[in-house]
Structures are given as structure tokens and as C-alpha cells.
């Protein structure tokens, strides 16, 4: 899950997909974002690198912090075994990245994943409706796919969706890259903005997206 700007609803979409899929599957959200949005709302204060208070277990859904509040450095060997253990018990791994994809933690997570795996990374890019944000998000997708490629000869990123979120007026959105599962427009939902996505119903568009992912991404 990537986005070129904060506040576009990236964590909202990640959490909604995870909650929907967790009704049938074991799902883990890895929070790599510097804002730690999903971790903060669940009271997670530590991280894998800190070695404590890094996970909340909600039955089929695990929420895991990878970004430390205490340090900007990243030690791959320190987290590798725990990270592998989490993945081995997961059907769907959802990684919520921040806006800084060249952060050491982001690169470290990609290296940790592709150390022993060849699965493609399925990308969902989330943008607000403003044209300059959409364009920045497209550039970020291209940069992220290149970043994944550099981690391992067999690593590859596949753009599944571009999500245009919080749309107040109907309009034609132009995108220059072609996601395999298409562009998805999510209208502005008052509850999500004013009550927090963790207290609101999951938008039907996100539920539909999760169901498509279930059928297409194994």
C-alpha cells in the first residue's frame, strides 16, 4: 500500500482490506509508515527492531510495527527471524508504507521479504483527487517497482489498483499507468473522516476490492 502524500486514506484502505480478508484468512498488516497510523490507534508503542510491544493479535488479524519511534536506523538481522515467523503464519501480508519509500526501514522490509521468497509484490496506490497528487502517485509507483527490482533478481512489483479516494464531485480521472485490476474511485465518506476509519463501517468499494483480491491474488 503506497501513496505519495499523507492523509489520502492509505491506511484506511489497508485496514479495510485486511479486516475483510481476515473473516476467512490469516492476515498480517506490517506498518512501515513513519506516521505509524494503524499501530498508534491500536496502542502499539514498540517495533520489531525495538524487540518489544510490536504486535496486536486480533484473532485472524495481526498488526505489526516495523518502524521504531526511538531510532531512524534499521538493523535487518535483528528483525529477520521474527519477520519470517510472522509471514509463515500469514495468508495475506499487507504492508502499509509511508510517503518516503527510500527510507531505510522500507528498503529493509523489502530485503527481508525477498531474502527467501519470489512472490510478486501486489501494489495498491492511493491518491486524493487532485491532479498533482495523482501524478505524484504514478511517479511513486514507478519508483517503487524499480526499488523492488533492485532487492533481488527474481523480485517484481505489480500494480493492481490505483485508488482515487475522498472524491466529492464526479469527474474523469486520467491516469498514465495501467493497473491490472483497474482504477477505483471512492467517494468522500463523512464517518471515515470525522469518526476515524477504525470506528466506521468499511466502505463497500474497499470490501469489493478485498473480494477481488481474494479471487485474483493467491
The biggest beta sheet is recorded as: 4 strands, mixed
Q: If you compute it from the alpha carbons, what radius of gyration comes out, rounded to the nearest whole angstrom?
A: 16 Å
Adjacency order of strands in the biggest sheet: 2-3-1-4
- Reading the helices and strands in chain order gives HEHEEHEHEHEEHH
Q: Rough shape?
A: globular
Compute the average pLDDT: 93
How many beta strands in the DSSP annotation? Answer: 7
Number of DSSP helical runs: 7
The percentage helix is 25-40%
Poorly predicted tracts of residues: none
Summarize the structure.
This protein has helices at residues 10-21, 37-41, 76-88, 104-114, 131-151, 190-195, 204-216; strands spanning 27-31, 55-58, 61-65, 92-96, 121-127, 157-167, 183-187.
Description:
With 218 residues, the chain is α/β, with parallel strands linked by helices. 37% of the residues lie in helices and 19% in strands. Strands 2-3-1-4 form a four-stranded mixed beta sheet. Strands 5-6-7 form a three-stranded parallel beta sheet, with helices on both faces. It is globular, with a radius of gyration of 16 Å. It starts with 9 loop residues before the first helix and ends with a helix. The mean pLDDT is 93.
Keywords:
single chain, alpha/beta, 218 residues, 4-stranded mixed beta sheet
Write the layout of secondary structure elements.
Layout: H1 10-21, E1 27-31, H2 37-41, E2 55-58, E3 61-65, H3 76-88, E4 92-96, H4 104-114, E5 121-127, H5 131-151, E6 157-167, E7 183-187, H6 190-195, H7 204-216
Parallel strand pairs: 1-3, 1-4, 5-6, 6-7
Antiparallel strand pairs: 2-3
Helix pairs in contact: 1-7, 3-4
Amino acid at each position: 500500500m503506497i501513496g505519495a502524500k499523507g492523509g489520502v486514506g492509505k491506511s484506511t484502505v489497508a485496514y479495510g482490506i485486511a479486516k475483510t480478508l481476515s473473516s476467512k484468512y490469516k492476515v498480517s498488516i506490517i506498518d512501515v509508515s513513519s506516521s505509524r497510523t494503524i499501530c498508534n490507534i491500536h496502542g502499539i508503542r514498540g517495533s520489531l527492531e525495538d524487540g518489544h510491544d510490536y504486535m496486536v493479535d486480533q484473532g485472524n488479524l495481526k498488526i505489526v510495527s516495523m518502524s521504531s519511534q526511538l531510532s531512524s536506523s534499521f538493523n535487518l538481522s535483528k528483525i529477520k527471524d521474527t519477520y519470517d515467523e510472522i509471514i509463515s503464519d500469514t495468508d495475506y501480508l499487507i504492508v502499509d508504507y509511508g510517503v518516503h519509500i527510500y527510507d531505510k526501514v522500507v528498503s529493509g522490509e523489502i530485503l527481508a521479504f525477498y531474502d527467501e521468497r519470489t512472490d510478486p509484490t501486489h501494489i495498491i496506490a492511493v491518491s486524493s483527487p487532485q491532479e498533482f497528487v495523482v501524478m505524484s502517485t504514478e511517479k511513486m509507483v514507478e519508483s517503487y517497482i524499480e526499488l523492488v527490482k533492485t532487492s533481488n533478481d527474481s523480485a517484481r512489483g505489480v500494480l493492481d489498483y490505483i485508488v482515487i479516494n475522498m472524491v466529492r464531485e464526479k469527474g474523469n480521472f486520467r491516469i498514465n499507468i495501467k493497473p491490472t485490476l483497474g482504477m477505483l474511485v471512492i467517494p468522500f465518506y463523512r464517518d471515515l473522516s470525522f469518526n476515524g476509519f477504525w470506528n466506521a463501517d468499511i466502505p463497500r468499494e474497499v470490501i469489493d476490492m478485498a473480494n477481488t483480491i481474494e479471487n485474483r491474488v493467491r
